[in-house]
Amino acid sequence: MSHIKVTWEKADNLVAEIANKMIVADFKPDIIVTILRGGVVPARLLCNYFDKASFFTVTVKLYDKVDDWQTEAGYLGAIGAVNVGKIDLPVYGQEKIIVIDDISDSGKTFSAVIEEIYNKYSGFSYGNRLYDGKTLKTASLYLREGSEFTPDFYGEKVCHKEWFDFPWEKKI
Q1: Cys-Cys link to 77, which of 23, 29, 81, 97 (CB 3.0-4.6 A)?
Q2: Domains of the chain: which residue ranges?
């Protein structure tokens, strides 16, 4: 599989584009939730634009190969299963939350996190789900064509199947 090297400058520009789209849409988040590990740096960069937002993380593991899920201690799921870690957010009133990752590839990670937030907290609006005023939105640097999930905000849509090498990922 071929690789596309994403530079720091490109990543920073994509985050700026996402932030500008959010500002134009009058969506200023109170809480930024990053999907570990790929979304950490984009989320931190997004904090530069929304400095009053709180920063939280969620661990998500997508088991897309037999070796992945067979080697996880105690994991009894199947290939394609998504395991979402504990989410603890300070949700009290009319919070606006953004969930961010580096790429919406299959879309399974975003879908699982959204469902987990719905299951744990009541009163969010997302898509055609209308509740009591809390708003949940999503963002990614890249949206891969064919993803089952389209984030509300994304930097660039890509149609190729290459692997992205982000500057914060280091192969050791």
Answers
A1: 81
A2: 3-165
- Tens of pLDDT, residue by residue over 124-136, are 555 544 444 568 8
- SS3 of residue 151 by DSSP: coil
Phi-psi region of 132 (alpha: psi -120 to 50; beta: other; left: phi over 0): alpha
Architecture of domain 3-165: 3-Layer(aba) Sandwich (3.40)
Q: How far apart are CA 106 and CA 149, in angstroms?
A: 7
Statement: residue 155 has pLDDT above 90? yes
Q: Burial code of 156-167, b = ≥16 C-beta within 10 A, e = fewer?
A: eebeeeeebebe
CA atoms of 84 and 132, how far apart (whole Å):
25
